[in-house]
Amino acid sequence: MQVREDSRAGDAAARDASAVGPASATSAAASALPVEYASAADLVRGEVGAGRSVHLECSRDAMRAAREAVQELAGPRRTAFYLEDDGGFDRDTVRSYLRFFARLAGDASAASDAIAHFGLRERASVLVPKLTPEERALLGFARVSLLDPELCFCERPLLELGPDARQTVLAWIGAQSEAGTLFVTCGQPLREALLMPGRAFWEEDGRFLAAEVDDDAADDEDEPAFEGDEVRVCKIAAKAGDVTLLLDPREIDFIESANRVNYASVRGELYPTALTMDELEVELERFGFFRCHRSYIVNVQKVAKVERYTRNTYNLVLSDAHHSSLPLSKGRAEEMRERFRWR
């Protein structure tokens, strides 16, 4: 396993479009963790072997390699797999399908609880092929939950889920994680990996780089006050093909830093911008934006609710077209609560 330790983490941070100032003591401790792996298999072996859940933004080839690594590591542990091409049994109803797996797990009565927990009670008598993609996804998680796994591998776990179903699944993952289950998830985009408890990595040229997370909010710097009739006009320059767009901050739902490029999200579309995350934070703060995570700046006016799945896992759900979920760093949660007087 080829791993780059914290002595080179500064180089990676300098290259990152979202790099910020000096790390706190908490961040320094976190940087002692491996920040790069040579392959998906090495990543899974290293992180799961150390007792940590891990979430990958990766290609399909890497997804297969990660799954094989989980199979190798399973050993005597109860291990469950949620696979995107697993459509269930065509002749089964939701109830009969889950009862079959409940019996395999040794508790036939658990099927009813799983049906209720994942919101499938009204669809319990429906044949599996007649379920919607979202309902099939929930059925898959209900099946996985019956095993009460110690190790769980998930392919694109949030892909087919709307906001309510996504909340249900993330809450289940959070509860299982706190109970000791290790998760390995694969998919896109990186934003989804950051919503789940554990470490997140993204793929670049076959290598896997850790997504940097700051648990402590950065120190606020006093902004100069504007006096008299002084007016500042703010437009965020972004690209759409060969065209340069000048975006009104009120149009922007959030800013995302992914794979060393920063994007402005407007009505579900991502537009790259040359500005750094620090520059964007300074420009947008006075328009009601907040740096909720090292890689995200959110328009607070678009925040519909704050969700908490574990002691250290917070998400912001937006009222945009896709009901996007953004990670909220635990160190910034209290700052956000105080700044915007949320209780």
Describe what you observe in this structure:
With 343 residues, this protein is α+β, with helices and mostly antiparallel strands. It folds into 2 domains: 6-210, 3-Layer(aba) Sandwich (Rossmann fold); 236-339, OB fold (Dihydrolipoamide Acetyltransferase, E2P) (Beta Barrel), CATH 2.40.50. The chain has 11 helices and 17 strands. It starts with 8 loop residues before the first helix and ends with a helix.
What count of structural domains?
2
- Say how many strands there are: 17
Quickly count the helices: 11
By CATH, the topology of the largest domain is Rossmann fold
Write the layout of secondary structure elements.
Layout: H1 9-15, H2 25-30, E1 36-37, H3 40-49, E2 54-57, H4 60-74, E3 79-82, H5 94-105, H6 110-117, H7 133-146, E4 151-155, H8 163-178, E5 182-187, H9 190-194, E6 199-204, E7 207-210, E8 236-240, E9 243-247, E10 254-258, E11 261-266, E12 269-273, H10 277-284, E13 289-293, E14 296-299, E15 303-310, E16 313-318, E17 325-328, H11 330-339
Parallel strand pairs: 2-5, 2-6, 3-4, 4-5
Antiparallel strand pairs: 1-7, 6-7, 8-9, 10-11, 10-14, 11-12, 13-14, 15-16, 16-17
Highlighted features:
343 residues, alpha+beta, Rossmann fold, OB fold (Dihydrolipoamide Acetyltransferase, E2P), 7-stranded mixed sheet, 17 strands, 24% strand, disordered N terminus
In short:
With 343 residues, this protein is α+β, with helices and mostly antiparallel strands. 32% of the residues lie in helices and 24% in strands.
